[in-house]
Design a protein that fits this description.
The complex is a heterodimer of chains A (about 325) and B (about 325). Chain A has about 325 residues and is an alpha/beta fold. Chain A has helices spanning about 45-55, 80-85, 110-115, 125-135, 145, 155-165, 185-205, 215-220, 240-245, 250-255, 320-330, and strands spanning about 5-15, 20-30, 35-40, 60-70, 75, 90-95, 175-180, 205-210, 225-230, 230-235, 305-310, 310-315. Chain A contains 11 helices and 12 strands. In chain A, the strands form 2 sheets. Chain A has an 8-stranded mixed sheet with strand order 6-7-8-3-9-10-12-11, sandwiched between helices. The radius of gyration of chain A is 21 Å and the shape is globular. In chain B, a hairpin with a 4-residue loop joins strand 1 and strand 2 (about 90). The chains are: A alpha/beta (about 325), B mainly alpha (about 325). At the A-B interface, helix 2, helix 3 and helix 6 of A face helix 9 and helix 10 of B.
């Protein structure tokens, strides 16, 4: 990916709860207008990573180290009042649960207007017009009447549209979407993703999509970053990733997906043995206890990210050995 | 809005059997007490012959059997005649109406004080949850919660009236001062301060604890994170998004408390010599003035039903989800 300036850069970001580090040093760049998908199973730290960007971590969690660079500023240490000018204006956030992420006692128009009013000085009338324009943009019919309604008057998909309208209200450069379709019906999921894609290109907005839906990633993202146990396991452009993932964990993820085309060397649906928890106390590669290729060297120290191809990195000490194996036999060890 | 009116109509309809029940139970309970008004009068005047007492009972209708007495009372109430007070020698309605403003003033000022202070203190406790201001306020509110209001009343009289001499120790106004305008108003307010605090303390503590719990619950919600993600000021988040939602359970409970407040007023009015319904109740009890007692019970149940209506309406204002 030869895009010029990064919108956001995470440098060795570490996030955790007291006594437990969840995100263990992440380096990530999101470029202007790019759609980066961050995937991984529950508990791998992908949501914490997303929340730490705007310092909206849940109670008890804290950024333990590293930097979040946006516009030349380190958001991890920026004074709260300065950070507030970036929240909702430069970087916007969409949460997973549209049913609970809107305030039940305020009209949705007001909740969208809040975002505009806290960043721009506009007349009340202009703000209202902008709200209606935004609702129209995200595909809500009768926006003028709907703006006065409350969240309980809307279905889940509609609420997520309202959340999107709220998020794009100030034309942010980056949109963080934390599993935006997980809570929605399958039929609605595609609509919401299409809407997001459409808006991204219309507004030239970069997007960090947190998800475990590989279907959405394949169809939709420019680049994918696979997280495992608080670290990046593999980061790759979309097309080559889905045809030949390098990291054993990525391979396992694709093999365990119901989508047949992605089973890159086998047609059987296979699970990844073990659980994420089995990495606890592991000195070396966190995936080693579950990895079919694990060797003694894997248990010594966490593997560094190595370049596989331009714009493609994977953190595995045995990449060469795995390549040799998979070229020798079109069979994935179970 | 139509939903609200339908609610009011339904509540009023439900209120009728409730009121009948309250009258019946109060009536029977009062008659279970040994002795009657005539015994009390005889007791106060030192002695009375059996014939005199019997004649008095005849005059006041106390010799009729219970069913007749009850029927007479109900028939009276239906024509807004609430009976005649034996001890005050005046219609019950007049006796009560004379005292009602003083009690309403005390109750309303105590209620507002408890609500405003309780919510603010609860908000502060939630914001500082786990830190020392929270712990200090939590233990203080526990003290207010567990201390009986007559004791709180006596203690604040000792401190603020006795030692510091900031406020008068009792009464509703300075006797014989014949003040006017602002001076009259200021005099009433200084008399109102201590009894209001004594009456409010317990409720303030409840509302503070409730607000704290509700706020902590609300501040954990996703929409608070959404609000923060918009870059709005933390105070706006806490008030517009936090407190606005936390007020719903607090208002519900506060509405249920207005009846209790009247009960508390009975005690506090006695401590502070406040010329209201509370003291009237105590006096009527001592004089076995059943008609007055019945009137007060009837009034307070009407008041509770009416405030519940107001609270229902307030809740619909606060929570759009119940607006049909």
């Amino acid at each position: 990916m030869s895009r010029k300036t990064p919108v956001l850069e995470l440098l060795n970001l570490r996030v955790g709860f007291p006594g437990a580090e969840i995100v263990k040093g992440i380096n990530l760049q999101i470029h202007e207008g790019e759609k980066l998908a961050l995937v991984g199973e529950s508990g791998c730290g992908k949501s914490l990573t997303a929340f730490s960007i705007l310092r909206l971590l849940p109670q008890g969690a804290a950024i333990n180290g590293g930097q979040v660079i946006y516009d030349g500023l380190d958001l991890a240490t920026l004074p709260a009042w300065q950070l507030r000018r970036i929240r909702g204006k430069g970087i916007a956030l969409i949460l997973q649960e549209p049913m609970t992420s809107l305030n039940p006692v305020l009209p949705i128009g007001l909740q969208i207007a809040e975002n505009i009013r806290s960043h721009e000085t506009m007349s009340r009338k202009a703000v209202n017009e902008r709200v209606i324009e935004l609702l129209d943009l995200v595909g809500i019919a009768n926006p003028r009447e709907r703006a006065k309604m409350y969240p309980h008057n809307f279905s889940g998909g509609m609420r997520q549209r309202v959340m999107i309208a709220m998020a794009i209200a100030c034309n942010p450069r980056l949109l963080i979407a934390d599993e935006p379709t997980t809570a929605l019906d399958v039929t609605i999921q595609a609509q919401v993703m299409d809407l997001l894609e459409d808006l991204c290109s219309k507004l030239n907005m970069a997007m960090l999509l947190i998800t475990h839906d590989l279907g959405a990633v394949a169809q939709w993202a420019d680049r994918v970053a696979v997280m495992y146990s608080g670290r990046i396991a593999e980061m790759a452009p979309i097309e080559p990733f889905f045809t030949g993932p390098k990291h054993p964990y990525s391979q396992g993820l694709l093999n365990s997906s119901v989508e047949d085309d992605w089973h890159y060397s086998d047609t059987r649906l296979t699970e990844i043995k073990g659980t994420v928890a089995s990495a606890a106390g592991e000195k070396g590669c966190a995936f080693a206890p579950r990895c079919p290729y694990a060797a003694a060297e894997c248990r010594l120290s966490p593997p560094e990210l190595q370049s596989v191809a331009p714009g493609w990195v994977a953190a595995c000490a045995r990449l060469d050995a795995i390549r040799a194996l998979s070229e020798g036999a079109a069979h994935v060890p179970a | 809005m139509r939903g609200v009116f339908r609610n009011i109509g339904r509540t009023l309809l439900q209120a009728i059997p409730t009121m009948m029940g309250i009258i019946l139970i109060s009536f029977l309970l009062l008659h279970l007490m040994p002795g009657d008004a005539v015994d009390a009068i005889a007791g106060m005047s030192g002695s009375a012959s059996v014939e005199t007492m019997d004649a008095m009972r005849e005059v006041y209708g106390l010799n009729d059997n219970l069913v007749v007495q009850f029927w007479n009372y109900i028939a009276g109430v239906l024509t807004l005649n609430f009976g005649y007070s034996i001890s005050y020698s005046a219609p019950v309605l007049d006796v009560i109406m004379e005292r009602l403003p003083a009690t309403l003033t005390l109750m309303m000022s105590a209620f507002l004080l408890a609500l405003v202070m309780g919510i603010l203190v609860g908000w502060a406790m939630a914001v500082f949850a786990g830190k020392w201001p929270d712990r200090l306020l939590t233990s203080t509110s526990l003290l207010f919660y567990s201390a009986p209001n007559f004791w709180v009343g006596l203690m604040i009289i000792v401190v603020f009236s006795g030692t510091l001499r900031w406020f008068p120790s009792g009464g509703a106004e300075t006797i014989g001062a014949s003040l006017e305008g602002w001076a009259w108003f200021a005099d009433r307010v200084t008399h109102l301060v201590l009894p209001s605090i004594a009456l409010a303390a317990f409720f303030m503590a409840i509302y503070a604890r409730l607000t704290r719990a509700a706020m902590l619950e609300v501040l954990r919600q996703d929409y608070i994170r959404t609000a923060a993600a918009k870059g709005i000021h933390p105070l706006v988040i806490q008030f517009r998004h936090g407190l606005r939602n936390a007020l719903i359970p607090v208002t519900t409970v506060a509405g249920l408390h207005l009846g209790n407040l009247l009960g508390g007023a009975v005690v506090v009015e006695t401590v502070f010599n406040w010329p209201g319904l509370g003291r009237l109740t105590m006096n009527a009890l001592a004089a076995r003035d059943n008609q007055v007692l019945l009137g007060i019970l009837l009034l307070s149940s009407v008041a509770v039903i009416a405030t519940n209506l107001v609270i229902d309406w307030l809740i619909t204002l606060l929570d759009p989800r119940i607006r049909a």
